[in-house]
């Protein structure tokens, strides 16, 4: 009789505890995963982390450790015979990412680089088109970026911070474009000639 009572007791305990254990199992099919452009070279964004060869979490601009010059050198070290024609700091889905593009006689090469520790997040390689230009960004151009960022922030006034920027070629000129934003999401865009350091356009 005692054995039967113990068996009934154990069955009741299991009946109560098993549903409680299984009810909180995680859902692995989360809708937070965002796949990106290239099917052969993709990274995803689950829970605001980028994954490919490495990961990156949400950072504010002040957390960025790598300078534009250091990012340029990472790219040149990986592709020593390639000419750089674009360097940018992009802000997308709450993430800062450095993007560098370059080319040689046959192909174009793109890197996406984590801005805190310099980890390469994504690599792309495509064949060059006949219409592609042969412009080149030099380290001397890149070393002027910080001065122009300071210039734009000073003009914008208190409360503004760097949103994103891009150094590229436009109409045969080396152009630096920067967007600064304030806490109310008001943005001002500046366009400079990187060689002369002169303001070409201001849009607010």
TrEMBL record:
Q: Which residues form the PepSY domain?
A: 77-124
> What is the residue range of the signal peptide feature?
1-22
Mark out the compositionally biased spans (Polar residues): 40-52
Q: Which UniProt keywords apply?
A: Signal
A Pfam family the protein falls into: PepSY
Residue segments, region Disordered? 25-52
Q: Name it.
A: PepSY domain-containing protein
């Amino acid at each position: 009789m005692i054995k039967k009572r113990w068996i009934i007791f154990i069955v009741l305990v299991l009946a109560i505890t098993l549903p409680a254990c299984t009810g909180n199992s995680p859902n692995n099919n989360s809708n937070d995963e965002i796949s990106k452009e290239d099917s052969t070279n993709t990274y995803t964004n689950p829970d605001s982390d980028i994954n490919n060869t490495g990961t990156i979490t949400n950072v504010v601009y002040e957390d960025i450790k790598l300078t534009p010059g250091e990012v340029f050198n990472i790219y040149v070290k990986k592709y020593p015979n390639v000419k750089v024609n674009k360097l940018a700091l992009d802000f997308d889905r709450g993430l800062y990412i450095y993007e560098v593009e370059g080319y040689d006689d046959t192909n174009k090469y793109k890197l996406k680089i984590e801005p805190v520790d310099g980890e390469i997040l994504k690599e792309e390689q495509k064949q060059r088109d006949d219409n592609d230009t042969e412009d080149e960004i030099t380290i001397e151009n890149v070393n002027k970026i910080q001065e122009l960022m300071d210039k734009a922030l000073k003009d914008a006034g208190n409360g503004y911070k760097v949103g994103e920027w891009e150094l590229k070629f436009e109409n045969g000129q080396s152009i630096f474009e920067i967007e600064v934003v304030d806490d109310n999401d008001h943005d001002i865009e500046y366009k400079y000639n990187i060689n002369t350091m002169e303001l070409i356009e201001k849009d607010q």
